[in-house]
Amino acid sequence: MKAKEILKSMSPYKPGKQIDEVKKEFGLEKIVKLASNENPFGFSPQVKKELPNLITGLEKYPDGYGTELRKKLSQELNIKEEELIFGNGSDEIVQIICRTFLEPGTNTVMATPTFPQYKHNALIEGAELREVPTKEGYHDLDEMLHQVDNNTRVLWLCTPNNPTGAHISSDEMEKVLSECPEHVLIVIDEAYYEYMDASDAFDAVGAIGKHPNLIVLRTFSKAYGLAGLRIGYGIAAKELIATLDPAREPFNTSTIAQAAAILALDDKEFLNDSIARNKENREMMMKFCKVNDLGFYDTQANFMLIHLPVSGDSLFQHLIRKGFIVRSGEALGIPNSIRLTIGSKEVMKEIQQEMLNFLESTKTGVE
Ligand SMILES: *Cc1c(COP(=O)(O)O)cnc(C)c1O
């Protein structure tokens, strides 16, 4: 048998450690996972209440068009129904984009570090990668545009960027959209859109009418708290959606995920509460970093990239023994840092104390 050559050098996605695994390994009762930017406040109680009622007709295939959700979302976003594509998480839309546009002989431009699935899927399709280092966590857009040539098919813009948290301002985005050649698909991944509160945030959905080569990605996995159901979507001009659609599996989003997404969209109270608490706790965490001389990148998301005077791995090891799972910066390509999902206030206070304990111990050499 002969698989694609590139797969020999690739490894499967390594998820953050699973809660049960860590409990067992360290003999812990309570574990808090702050490694995957999930919503620490759960998901809409409306969805929870209605979930048993959604479990009917499971012998039937789902509506592959997502008719009801499509209707609902097009009203919410003030767009046409044909301007949407759904995915088994926005992860799958990344895959669909790569299947549609990339092949050997083409290239794709992205920041580094950024969301790893762009690179992963591009490699499988045999495309050349052009990765442009971020500056203080921000995309270096001039250099990214400089890397674009006749063979560039896709330009990835992640805002706020995972794992740095920094967003792309409206002015910068306008500049990219006007300067990037029209043969390049521009992907604006807004997985953390709901958390953004910068006054200069870009209205990406509002721009799809003017830019036939633009797609905006959003998800129910982060602020809506439905990561376990796997549903995300893309918004683009209907011609672009029609180009992508043949590369999509016919029944890629489940009946339950579609129904839950509709209920989640209706529960603005839960969403707004999650956003407000994230903002408050994020500010508290920034203050903590400032007081304790820990640098961090600007963030508009529900996570923070915090710089450390020690390796991210060493703090990761300390925290995991205390029941907190974070992402080590070494694993993300940013040494001496951690990426921390903003949790509840109580959890943030606990982790602050543990961080201080550890940093103190590294100074004195005892732990
Ligand atoms: C989490 C995340 C996604 C993927 O979310 P899905 O669960 O697949 O919808 C996409 N992009 C970024 C930047 C993310 O952080």
Instruction: State the order of secondary-structure elements, H for helix, E for strand.
Output: HEHHEHEHEHEHEEEHHHEHEEHEH
Using the CA coordinates, give the radius of gyration: 21 Å
Q: CATH superfamily of the largest domain, called what? A: Type I PLP-dependent aspartate aminotransferase-like (Major domain)
Outline: globular
Strand content: 5-15%
Named CATH architecture of the largest domain: 3-Layer(aba) Sandwich
CATH fold-level assignment of the largest domain? Aspartate Aminotransferase, domain 2
Distance, first to last CA: 52 Å
Total domain modules: 2
Number of helices: 13
Total number of beta strands: 12
Strand arrangement in the largest pleated sheet: 2-8-7-6-5-3-4
Report helical residue fraction. 25-40%
- Under the CATH scheme, which class of the largest domain? Alpha Beta
Q: How does the helix and strand content classify structurally? A: alpha/beta
* Uncertain residue ranges: none
Which whole number gives the mean pLDDT?
96
Largest sheet: 7 strands, mixed
Which kinds of small molecule does this entry bind, naming each only once? pyridoxal-5'-phosphate
Concise structural overview:
With 367 residues, this protein is α/β, with parallel strands linked by helices. Helix content is 39%, strand content 15%.
